[in-house]
Specification:
Helix content: 25-40%
Radius of gyration: 17 Å
Largest sheet: 7 strands, parallel
Shape: globular
Strand order of the largest sheet: 3-2-1-4-5-6-7
Structural class: alpha/beta
Amino acid sequence: MWSEVLDRDAIRGLHVVVTGSSSGIGCAIAERLLALDCVVHGFDRIPATIAGPQFHPHTVELADGAQTIAAARACAHADALVHAAGTLRVGTLGTLDHAGGELMWRVHVDAAARLADALVPAMAERGRGRVVLVGSRVAQGMPGRGQYAATKAALVALARSWAREVAPKGVTINVVSPAATATAMLDDPARSGRAPRLPPMGRLIDPAEIAELVAFLLSPAAVAITGQDIAICGGASLPS
């Protein structure tokens, strides 16, 4: 487990903003960080599914720019940001869901930009900070997922650009890109009944496995890792 190499005293007490904290990957990340004695500020539009003295829920519609900025400003002291919130809309050329595409852009990309703009400069002033954006292996391209893929690919461009800006100031910014993961999104009717493609290892990625990698990236041990798109894919990125 990644957490076995963590300096628990160094990560203990970190204030981390985690979006999408009420379900799926975001929930797994929030739970793991709480287990490592971090303080988690959970941003989600649905009620919190986590309770505890170190968990602070914030009801935020990330597609609403004003709400996102207001929530971020309330957490200006945050040491780290993990943007895991996501939504899925599908469509091939000729049947694209343009409203859905706009929603995905707002939740995945615009929210990331607003949150980072509000939180990262203060991290840089303090000389330490961490940002992890949850991307997707689909960013490499997949039929029927063009709009979704575009938003996830945009996260990589943002992370690499921002990482270069703040690397001298002790802030790292990375993307973690899972392959098909065992979350409720796989049951979303928006998938049009299409079964997920299993990675070569023969099973879906477990959200807890993503959470372990994210926790490591927030730790001092990961200080030299920045501007990277890290696949957690069970072999899906390997040549066939």
